[in-house]
Every structure is written in C-alpha cells, then in structure tokens.
Amino acid sequence: MENQEIQYIDYVSASEHNFHVSLLKLPEAVSLFTKLDQQILDMSRHLNLLPTLTEKDTFYFIGSFLLIAQRQMRNAFTLQLRRTSYDAMLLLRVGLESTVFAYRIFKEPSLLEVWARKNENRKEFTQKFSRDEIPSDMPFKEKIEQQLDRLNDYWAHPNIGYFATALQFQEEEIKVHFFDHSERTFHAVLLSSLDLCLNILAVFRKILADRFAIFITSTELTCQQLVTEFEQLKKKYRSIIEV
Q: What is the CB neighbour count within 10 angstroms for residue 33?
C-alpha cells in the first residue's frame, strides 16, 4: 500500500481499515481526545448561552477562533487514526494559528479590526499577526512557536525535508508512503498532536479565565486529569518511540 501505483479505491479501503484498527488498538488515545474535545465543546456551549455576547463583543469572534481550532483538531485526529499523520499535522497547524490569533486579539482587542480588514491592508495584517512577537504570557508560547516553525520548514512545502519523510529511494524505483509505515513515527506524531491539542485547550482556558472564572474553576480538575492521562499515555508508548 506504499507504492505510487496503488489504485484509488484500494487507497480509500486501506484508509478506512487503518481508521477502524486504530479505534480498536488505541483506546486510551481515542478516549483522551474525546474528553479533550468535550472540553472545547463545553467552552463553546458556555459562550453560546451568554445573552450579552454579540458580534460587538471581541469574545464573540474569539469563540469563532475556538470553533475553527476544534474543527481542525477533530479532522487532524481523524487523519492521524488513518495513519496519515503528516497530513494530520498540517490540519492541526491551522488550529494552532487560530489559537495564536485568538490570543493576540484577546490581549489587544483592536487587532480584531486589523484581522477583519486583511484584504484592505495586508502589510499591517502581516506585521501584527505574523511578524510581531506572540504575547509572552501565552501558555506554551515557545512550544507552539517551535511547532509552527517545524511545520513550515518540513511539512508545509515539498522541499527536501518533506521528501525525506515521504519518499523511499530504492535501486530501481521511488516509493511514496501514503500511510505511516513506521510505528515509531506514527506514535511519536500521535503524542505530539495530542500534546498540542492540550496546549490549545490551555490557551483558550487562559483567554476565558478572567471573564468566566466560575466556568474555568469548575472544569479545572477535569483538565488536570487529561494531563495525567496524557502522561500515562507517554509512558505506555515510550518503548515504541525509543526503539
């Protein structure tokens, strides 16, 4: 299933097979993501229940960034289970960027207008949302920055770094890996993506913390349990990754 001559129907069949096998073989990872996704869903529902939240409120649009991040997380994890982790991380990249954008606007609400008027002033948009430093107090700032840089350098463009992960050069042919062929890589990227999803959750919790303190406090224990489950998952996969 790794050669470029694979028929499309066979490719789809293999993808479906990988997905269902992953659901059976990775119950802890699936359970962790499901609980994490529920936390994002609860945040969204909480914002939707607020009668005073309208399009005139910055948090109205921050909620939109939250929904985009959730969509990207869901789609990325689904691709991860299909063992197409490189494509999965590219989808997660948009979720990370959505999270950073939300935090920038949270810290400086006037940036919402810069974001909305991107097509009218691309130079200002690029400066404020790409070149300016991410606020120093954003949770997991350095980790998210490093991951975005890594995705841009190795996974977002077909440069030599991307080719090194996607191709296998043999004596008489070049093979393209449509699915993760290395258990080590698959589990390492799975852990990385779950870790980043937890980071995204932490950033949005920080955004909501002051204005919605009761909601954040009431869900703190659940979020701590998610981190504990993730640490347990890392221990379980360590023997595979450290081969």
A: 24
